[in-house]
Amino acid sequence: MAKQSFADIYSMWESTHDEAKALSKRASADDRGHEGGPSINEIRRMPAQEELDLHEMRLEDAVRATTEFLEASRRRGLRKVRIVTGKGIHSENGEAVLRPAIIGLCKNSSLVREVSVHKASEGGSGALTVILKAGK
Predict the structure, then answer these.
(1) CA–CA separation, 81 vs 66, rounded Å?
(2) pLDDT per position as a tens digit, 64-111
(3) Closest Cα to residue 52, out of 133, 6, 1, 106?
(4) What is the pLDDT of residue 65?
(5) N or C terminus of the chain with fewer C-beta within 10 Å?
(6) 13-35: string of b/e by CB count within 10 Å (b at 16+)?
């Protein structure tokens, strides 16, 4: 049997496979929820469905409130919520205490798919966007 080059093998594969269709199908499957719900990109574009404001709370109370809020939001079938932590400018030494703790809580939560700091137009670094995993 004659030795084939990679180009020959790829050309033969390309003639029998629709790579663009396969990639599109894969992207669609990755983007959609298991139940055929909204894609992650659709969820990212939608407004927050509920908000929790942690201003003036002590760390322990804020952690408890956030945990309860995430659990209740998931039970209600919400997918995107906002958590307002403030920027920490009134904290001792002007260093944020709540924001890093709440980001860590969200990142380690089995209920959360992703957490990010809000865009400036949505409250900036004083608010977090949390996308919850789809309920089962």
Answers:
(1) 11
(2) 999 999 999 999 999 999 999 987 666 677 677 898 999 999 999 999
(3) 106
(4) 97
(5) N
(6) eeeeeeeeeeeeeeeeeeeebee
In angstroms, the CA 53 to CA 66 distance is 9
Q: What is the pTM of this model?
A: 0.69
Q: Which residue has the tokens 């809000």?
A: 118
Contact 51, 84 (CB under 8 A): yes
Maximum pairwise Cα distance, the chain: 77
List the CATH code of the domain at 40-132: 3.30.1370.110
Ramachandran category for residue 54: left, alpha or beta (phi over 0 → left; psi -120 to 50 → alpha): alpha
Is the pLDDT at 136 greater than 80? The verdict is no
Asked whether 44 and 81 are in contact (CB, 8 A), the reply is no
Domain residue spans in the chain?
A: 40-132
> CA torsion sign, 74 to 77 to 81 to 51?
negative
